[in-house]
Design a protein that fits this description.
single chain, mainly alpha, Cyclin A, domain 1, 61% helix
Length: 111
Amino acid sequence: MSDCLTHSAPEPVFVEPWHAQVFAVTVALNEAGRFDWSDWAARFSQTLKRHGLDRELDGGDDYFHAWLETLESLLAEHGEAAPADVDTMKNAWEDAYLTTPHGQPVRLAPV
């Protein structure tokens, strides 16, 4: 029997599409010079410690919520994304997906 028939497909790296998206945005912002990766890593480490070990911080939603929290905080501190603007955009997206009929593309109304 061939080895290729006995191996299963690899597990996905990201559980949810938004995990990959927030990761990619963070990497792109770093590569664009918006922040230093060592600063990012230190801040993310602090966020994970603050959340403690009582949550699933192994690449699931809790991990990426901590990732997003760190990114939003860093961008706010650098004047790139004010918390009020982030909240406005988040609410607009929530309204859009909650009012979009199933199977239709979600369209964000002008904010």
